[in-house]
Amino acid sequence: MRTEYRNATRSKLLIKKAFIDLLKEKPASKVTVTDIVHEANISRGTFYAHYLDTKDLLESFQREFIEQILYFTRKNHKLTLVEQLNTLLMKILDILKNDYETYCILSNQDFTFEFYNEIRDAMIQELQQEFSLSPETKRRLHIFIGGFMMLLREWLQKGNFESMDEYAQTLSTLITENL
User: Fold this and answer.
1) H helices within 26-134, ranges in order?
2) pLDDT tens for residues 135-157?
3) Torsion of the alpha carbons at 28, 34, 39 and 43, rounded to the nearest 10
């Protein structure tokens, strides 16, 4: 059983690496399952054992990213709202920095805009469950996190790695002083 798990993990990594390599050459909407299986040197059956199609594969990166954020949020649930939000935004930056090239490539694809809205909505939903936010606080968070997501998108699309630390510091100040 353990070998199957290792093989499944290995297959997924091969598929994802092949997909990212292909995205360097063409947009996600032009990458086919055939391209991926050739690049990864796997069978079509192996691909379909893990993903429905290329859109599902792309969305798997998004799901994993959101799962990391939600796991982190639940793990740090004893913080105040301001501390939680500040810590959460810094964690997002850490996740992106740890796999910067992959997220830069993914952020420049033609059907990923909804990803940023999904992150925002998932964060607000988690914070709502933990803190029972008032409608006004929820509205402020919606605007604030939405702005943060657009900064992230710009940061990833322009490849301006250093300036995000400056953004993060500014955001941290905004959170602690105005939320």
Assistant:
1) 33-40, 44-50, 54-75, 81-98, 100-107, 113-131
2) 998 898 888 888 888 888 887 87
3) 130
